[in-house]
Amino acid sequence: MKKSFFLIALMVFCCKTSEIPKSNLSVEDKISLTTNCPDDGTCTFEVIPNSSMKILTDDTGALYPQFYKSEAVVLKFEYKKNEQVNTADGGYSELIYLEINEDDLELELENSKLEQVKLLFGRLCFCRGSSGYFKITDGSLSIKKIGNDTYRIDITFTTNKVPQIINSISETFSLK
Q: Is residue 148, in this structure, part of any structural domain at all?
């Protein structure tokens, strides 16, 4: 009896789950931005390799993104407004997602052609009736190669569905 108790205790305390080292993760670090970022918040830009995005609709008709592994690359821009202290439900953020094909990175798209990259704008806040994700079909996107594996992205867009703070993004990114 003592041996079985000792063996069980030994197994419980000696077993450890393995951790994946950060260097093996495929998602790149977020880059903090100051260009095109309002003074009252923080902005980040993230390159998410080996990912694709489906734009789905829930039971209420609201859009939302779903991500899965693939050969494509998802680009994510996020603006987070600084929260006011002692304010419940005071969080506000805007997200812009798009999906690009790593084999065809240089792009010039306008208006309805933005659907080719699944350009999606998200306004997340406690803003009754004016929160959620929205497809962008009014604007322009330019991605140009400026060096080895380095690209420049310029986006301008508007949505008439909800108010927005961010309407343009200019950033340099790498696919290394």
A: yes
The pLDDT of residue 137: 95
Question: Is residue 124 situated within a structural domain?
Answer: yes
DSSP secondary structure string for all residues of 6-18: HHHHHHHHH----
**More confident site: 74 or 90:** 74
Instruction: Kindly state whether residue 167 falls inside one of the protein's structural domains.
Output: yes
53 within 8 A of 67, measured Cβ to Cβ: yes
Biggest CA-to-CA distance, the chain: 75
**Quick check: pTM over 0.85?**
no
As a whole number of angstroms, the distance between CA 7 and CA 104 comes to: 58
**Half-sphere exposure (CA, 13 Å, Cβ side) for 155?**
24
> Helix, strand, or coil here: 166?
coil
How many structural domains comprise the chain?
1
Question: What is the chain's length?
Answer: 176
Domain containing 103 equals 21-82+91-174
